[in-house]
Every structure is written in C-alpha cells, then in structure tokens.
Specification:
Blueprint: E1 16-17, E2 23-24, E3 28-33, E4 45-52, E5 62-67, E6 71-74, E7 82-91, E8 94-95, E9 99-105
Parallel strand pairs: 2-9
Antiparallel strand pairs: 1-3, 3-6, 4-5, 4-7, 7-8, 7-9
Length: 120
C-alpha cells in the first residue's frame, strides 16, 4: 500500500517595509523584511507596486513582480508628490497581504542659475 504525504501551503504573511524616512529622493531603494511565516513554502518572491496616493483599482501604478530580493531601486519619482508603496510576498499558494507605506518625494533642490547680467 503506497504511503502519501500531503503538504499544504498557504499564502505567506506580509513582509515589513523597513524604510523609516517619510521624505525620499526621486530615486531611492525600497527595503523590506521577509514575512515571519512563509506559508510552508520557502520559495518566496515579492511584488512591489507604487503610484500616486491613493492607489485604487483605477489608479495608474507601476508594478514589478517576481523580485527574489528584499529591496528594489525605485527611480524617476515626481518631486513634491506623495506616493503609496505596497510590497507583497508570494509563493505557490498565491500572494499574501501587502505592507503599505506612504512617502513624499522631496522638492527639487535644483535652483535656476542666475546670470548676474554677465551675458549679452
């Protein structure tokens, strides 16, 4: 008589975003900790979503899937805009709940150059 061993998996817990600053540069690295429970499957990948606050189903947002690391470089954000970031862990059972954090992109520090009347 064959013996079967059944393994069940569930979706992982949410990861935890570790960035603590509320104001960010227009390019920064979003970092997070892995979920405390992997759902019984240690092959975890991550999905990162971001868009102007608030993200809704109709909101234009950026999505990067199947990230094997616990960080992602985010580039080309608009100065002075508040963004919502979501990080989800996923395994073969599906995606877990997202960790959500809001950041405001610092105003540009670029100042127009002044001529001081020297050009003609």
């Amino acid at each position: 008589m064959p013996i079967f061993q059944w393994f069940t998996t569930s979706v992982p817990d949410k990861p935890r975003i570790t960035n603590t600053e509320k104001e960010i540069e227009s390019s920064f690295t979003l970092k997070w900790l892995p979920p405390t429970y992997d759902g019984g499957d240690n092959n975890i990948l991550y999905q990162v979503e971001w868009g102007k606050k608030p993200i809704t189903d109709e909101t234009d947002r950026s999505v990067v899937e199947n990230i094997p690391y616990t960080s992602r470089k985010i580039k080309n954000l608009e100065h002075g805009v508040e963004y919502e970031f979501r990080v989800m862990a996923k395994n073969q059972a599906g995606s877990g709940e997202p960790d959500i954090m809001f950041f405001t992109v610092k105003e540009s520090t670029d100042k127009p150059t002044q001529d001081h009347g020297q050009s003609k």
